[in-house]
Amino acid sequence: MLFRQALSVLFRQALSVLFRQALSVLFRQALSVLSGTLPPTGVIGRGSRGGILSMGVLRVALCAATAALAFGSSSCALDPGAPGPAPGSPSRAAVDDLLSRVEVVPARPDVPGYERGCRAGQACVFGPSWSDDHSGRGGHDGCDTRNNVLSVDLTDVVFRQGTHDCVVVSGTLADPYSGQRIDFTKQDANAVQIDHVYPLAAAWDLGAAAWSPELRRDFANDITYNLLAVDGPENQAKSDSTPSQWLPPEPASHCFYVGKYLSVAVRYGLPITAADRDTIETIAARCP
Question: Could you tell me the residue ranges of all domains in the chain?
Answer without folding.
Answer: 2-71, 92-284
